[in-house]
């Protein structure tokens, strides 16, 4: 089936709907930042259980993004996207009604599966709406700004909602947003082409098992449960070996070789992973530092994140214009440099007990770095994808980001601990700075101008 070309006047509204749907998946990861302390107090969550409540979403999301990308190409981006949005809205209702932390963690994992359907599908839908590369780059900038606005609003809205309605409120607000998404994307212009590429479910499940067990090992190691960590690590290695074996025999491998071999895709995946490692790890450890060490309440914690996240709502539009004019390489390098600089300053500020204003300034630098890097990386990946593989390319990119985000929460959370101590928080953020600096050096050499 060939997509109907959308009239120019309707494209902004359709793009808005796609962006809100994608923003839902981002909002659910950042809005949890303001609810962490309330969860530990009301449900008795320790460090490892809190990490799993946060990480369950990104573990499942990261693992199933690989297959979700293939599902987009096979069944059509429109079908996969809308199914994911419906499931996300219904699961949000279940999350608000969860009776305990175990149930909430399970719901969060299922929400990750629904989000996996939305992410690569949204990228593929944009390629259908905007076929001209320059217009597409600007559209990606607007899409990133709208969805980035959700990320920016997450801690602030979460803080206000938690202050009024407790942690349950952060799930209720997803329902009207899901309904708005479905209304705005009910367009024939989004019903595009499909392929007959099959999906290897055995490989997919083994990938999910390997990721989940590996994250469990990291969380257990950080909690001092070395026996548990060792068992999970061995199981993760076995699951990885099974995945490799299944991939070699598969007629439709999860890791599509054609996409992985395409141009700048490999370096872009690594850079995207570094960005999300730093961002998600920082979003996990800073709320605990603000609330436990600086004694800020949930609302003031949300406000403290505004300098970091405010740029997500408007700077991607500028990044999209820069990419359209100069290509993606320059903003990617600028973004990674700002991330490394901001994380270094943030680590120094928390370690020395500097005034809160300095902490907020350095966190703002980190946030600006994200807004330069991510839209440019998305443009790089979608532009390099082979014909008919936009969904798979989007799946690879977002899977790498979510896996790195999960590792960031596990590793940096284990270093910082649930008490939010200044020294431990500084050490965790310094690790993020080192990762971004190393990937910046690699990207300078490997990402080619387009």
In CATH, the topology of the largest domain is named Growth Hormone, Chain: A
- The average pLDDT score comes to 81
CATH architecture of the largest domain: Up-down Bundle
For this structure, what is the CATH homologous superfamily of the largest domain? MFS general substrate transporter like domains
Structural class: mainly alpha
Number of strands: 0
Write down the CATH class of the largest domain: Mainly Alpha
Task: Write up this protein.
Helix 18 (390-416) runs antiparallel to helix 19 (422-446). By secondary structure, the protein is mainly α. 60% of the residues are buried. The protein folds into two domains: 11-186 and 252-446, Growth Hormone, Chain: A (Up-down Bundle); 200-251. It is 80% helix and 0% strand. It has helices at 11-30, 36-43, 47-75, 77-96, 101-129, 133-165, 169-172, 174-184, 201-222, 226-249, 257-260, 265-293, 298-304, 306-309, 315-326, 329-352, 356-384, 390-416, 422-446. Keywords: Membrane, Transmembrane, Transmembrane helix, Transport. The chain crosses the membrane at residues 12-34, 54-72, 84-103, 109-130, 142-164, 170-190, 202-223, 229-246, 267-290, 302-320, 332-351, 357-384, 396-418, 424-445. Residues 14-450 form the Major facilitator superfamily (MFS) profile domain. InterPro entries: MFS, MFS_dom, MFS_trans_sf.
């Amino acid at each position: 089936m060939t997509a109907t070309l959308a009239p120019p006047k309707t494209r902004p509204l359709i793009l808005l709907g796609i962006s809100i749907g994608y923003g839902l998946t981002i909002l659910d990861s950042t809005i949890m930042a303001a609810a962490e302390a309330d969860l530990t107090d009301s449900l008795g969550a320790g460090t490892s259980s809190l990490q799993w409540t946060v990480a369950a979403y990104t573990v499942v999301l990261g693992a199933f993004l690989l297959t979700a990308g293939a599902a987009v190409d096979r069944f059509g981006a429109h079908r996969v996207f809308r199914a994911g949005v419906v499931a996300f809205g219904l699961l949000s209702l279940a999350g608000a009604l969860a009776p305990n932390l175990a149930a909430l963690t399970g719901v969060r994992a299922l929400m990750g599966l629904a989000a996996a359907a939305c992410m690569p599908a949204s990228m593929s839908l944009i390629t259908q709406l905007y076929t001209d590369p320059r217009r597409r780059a600007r559209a990606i900038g607007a899409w990133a700004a709208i969805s980035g606005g959700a990320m920016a609003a997450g801690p602030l809205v979460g803080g206000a909602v938690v202050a009024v309605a407790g942690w349950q409120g952060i799930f209720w607000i997803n329902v009207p947003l899901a309904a708005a998404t479905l209304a705005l994307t009910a367009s024939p212009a989004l019903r595009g082409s499909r392929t007959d590429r099959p999906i290897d479910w055995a490989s997919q499940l083994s990938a999910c098992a390997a990721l989940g067990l590996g994250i469990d090992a990291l969380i257990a190691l950080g909690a001092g449960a070395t026996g548990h960590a060792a068992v999970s690590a061995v199981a993760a290695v076995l699951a990885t070996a099974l995945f490799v074996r299944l991939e070699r025999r598969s007629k439709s491998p999860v890791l599509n070789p054609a996409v992985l071999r395409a141009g700048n895709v490999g370096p872009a995946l690594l850079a995207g992973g570094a960005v999300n490692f730093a961002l998600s790890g920082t979003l996990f450890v800073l709320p605990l530092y603000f609330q436990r060490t600086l004694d800020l309440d949930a609302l003031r914690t949300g406000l403290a994140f505004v300098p970091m996240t405010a740029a997500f709502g408007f700077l991607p539009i500028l990044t999209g214009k820069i990419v359209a004019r100069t290509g993606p390489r320059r903003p990617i390098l600028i973004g990674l440099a700002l991330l490394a600089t901001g994380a270094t300053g943030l680590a120094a500020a928390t370690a020395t007990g500097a005034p809160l204003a300095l902490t907020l300034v350095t966190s703002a630098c980190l946030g600006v770095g994200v807004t330069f890097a991510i839209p440019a990386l998305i443009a790089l990946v979608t532009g390099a994808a082979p014909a008919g593989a936009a969904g798979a390319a989007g799946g690879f990119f977002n899977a790498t980001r979510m896996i790195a985000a999960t590792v960031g929460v596990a590793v940096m959370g284990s270093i910082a601990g649930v008490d939010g101590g200044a020294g431990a928080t500084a050490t965790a953020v310094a690790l993020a700075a080192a990762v971004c600096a190393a990937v910046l050096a690699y990207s300078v050499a490997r990402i080619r101008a387009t």
